[in-house]
Amino acid sequence: MSHGRGRDRSSAPPAGGPDRPRVECPSVPSVPSEAGSVLSVSLPDGLLPGADASRGLPGQHVLVCLFTFQVMFALSSAAALILIPSGLFPHPSLQTLAGCLALILTGATILGTRRYIRSQRRDRTRGRGAADLINTVLLTSREWLWVVDHRGTFTFSSRTSLTLLGYEPAELVGQPWSTVIEPEDLDRARLSVLASQDPDGFAGLGVIVRCRHRDGSPLWMEVSGRACLGADGTPAGFEGTGRLLTSPTAEEAATTRSRARIRGIISGQRLLTAFQPIHDLTTGHVIGAEALSRFVSDDGVSADYWFGEASVVGLGNALEFAALETALKAAEALPPSLYVALNISPDTCLDTRLPQVLEGSHVSLDRIILELTERLPVVEYGLLTAALEPLRQRGLRIAVDDAGSGFASMRHILHLRPDIIKLDRSLIAGIRDNTGQLALGAAMVEFAKRINATLVAEGIETPADLSAVTGLGMTAGQGYLLGRPSIQPRDWATWPHQTRFTSPDGMPSPGDSCPVPEHDPIS
Question: What are the pLDDT digits (tens) for 175-185?
Answer without folding.
Answer: 998 888 877 66
